[in-house]
Amino acid sequence: MDVKSAFLNGDLEIFMRIPPGVKAKEEQVWLLHKALYGLKQASREWYLELKGQLEELGFKRSNADHGVFTKIIDGKLFLIATYVDDFLLFLSNISHIGTVNKGGHFEMKNLEEAS
Fold first, then answer.
1. Does some domain include residue 65?
2. What span, in angstroms and rounded, lies between the C-alpha atoms of 82 and 52?
3. The model's pTM
4. Is the residue at 47 inside a domain?
5. Would you write out the chain's pLDDT as a tens digit for each of its 115 residues?
6. Is residue 113 part of a domain?
7. Which of 11, 45, 53, 58 has its Cα between 20 and 30 A from that of 35?
8. What is the dihedral of CA 113, 61, 57, 79, to 10 degrees?
9. Number of domains observed in the structure of the chain
10. Radius of gyration of the chain (CA)
């Protein structure tokens, strides 16, 4: 699964100088309310948002690898391995796939089975 515009899901408040070429008063600054690709803090904010959402759904973060989350559903292990904005889902029942984005918090694209 792939999360579309993942870094825009992170909340962040940061002041920035106005980019060159934009007409504005010299002393003016902008306040960003969302993380953007390329900001140093963007990947951390995205991870914190992802972690929070998965924990709300009952997933537990692995101590061995903080990009791996697990949950027991109907006595079976459901494992999510994350890498930036991509997920590999390991589950025994395909009907549980909706558990990952319950409530539609992230816009996601199903890339089908991994090979």
1. yes
2. 14
3. 0.68
4. yes
5. 567 656 566 667 778 788 888 888 777 888 877 666 667 777 788 788 889 888 988 899 999 999 999 998 888 888 989 888 788 888 776 666 666 655 566 666 666 677 7
6. no
7. 58
8. 30
9. 1
10. 18
